[in-house]
Structures are given as C-alpha cells and as structure tokens.
Amino acid sequence: MNKSIIWIIVILAIVVVGFMFYKTNYDQNTTPTENEEVSNQMPAPGREGVDEMVVGDEAGVKSFDITGQNFEFSAKEIRVKQGDTVRINFSSASGFHDLKIDEFNVATKQLQDGGSDSVEFVADKAGTFEYYCSVGSHRQMGMVGKLIVE
User: Fold this and answer.
1) How many domains does the chain have?
2) What does the alpha-carbon distance between residue 64 and residue 107 come to, in Å, rounded to a whole number?
C-alpha cells in the first residue's frame, strides 16, 4: 500500500477520534447559558443540579421543565412533598425521547427534536422513584433521573 494513503488513513482516524472525544465532552458539560431561565429561585448551596428546573408553584402545582437530549435529562433529580400535584413540561432538544415514571403511571408522548408534552399527577406515595426515557436502550445508557417524594 502506498505510504501517502496510509498517512491519509491515519490522519482521518485521528480526526474522527478527536471529534468523538470533543463531542462527548461537550455534550456532558453543556449547561444552560445565563440568558436561559432555569428557575425562579437559586438552588441552595450544595444542591446544584437539584430542583434546578422548577419553573413555578402555581395554584398548588409544582411545575418542572425537563429537556431530553443525547441520553440525559436536564434535571437529574426533582423533589416534591407527598400530596403535591406535579406538572412536568418535557421537551426533546435532540433525538427521539420520552419521560416515564412507572409508579405514578406517568408517560409523555415520544417526541422528536423540538417536540414537547406535559404530564400532571399527584405524588401520593413517598419514596425515591426513577424517571427514564423508554426509547430503545436510552434508559440503559443512563437517561434516567430521580423523583424524590418526601
């Protein structure tokens, strides 16, 4: 095989591996910008990433905006009190996703990029419950979060 062809293959392999490394790290470290409204209140010290997607407590309803993308949810954990009415406004930023919580029989529609759906339920059981994406093997790939009902 010609040496120049070997060098081209080696360079292409390095570029592909570098791009994959960059994309993986970029997706894991992407956070909302200062211009994006994340919450109507600052998280308590040491609670960063917890309840950060709370958008309001209107008429006794705890509302959360959660986005699904690249095998992760924008909020890893949400906390509510037992008896709270919970509304989850779910949107898919990239890919095909949904959000399910089996113990409360909660399921959004499966959504393409830019799609959104909301679910509302009463958190009538205390405990820690997993919410997850049921599309393909997304759950096994880590697209999960915790609903903590205190």
Assistant:
1) 2
2) 15
Residues 18 and 59 in one domain: no
How is residue 104 annotated by DSSP? G
The three-class DSSP label of residue 107 is strand
Give residue 15's domain range.
Answer: 1-30
Band (pLDDT 50/70/90 cuts) for residue 5 is confident
- Cα→Cα distances 122→57, 62, 64, 79, 150, Å: 14, 10, 14, 13, 13
Q: Is 41 contained in some domain?
A: no
pLDDT tens per residue, range 47-105: 444 444 445 556 689 999 999 998 999 999 999 999 999 999 999 998 899 999 999 99
Question: What whole-number distance in Å separates Cα of residue 48 and Cα of residue 21?
Answer: 26
C-alpha distances out from residue 104 to 21, 37, 128, Å: 38, 28, 12
| Structure token digits, residue 84 | 């709270």
Q: How far is CA 91 from CA 12, 73, 86, 94, in A?
A: 36, 10, 16, 9
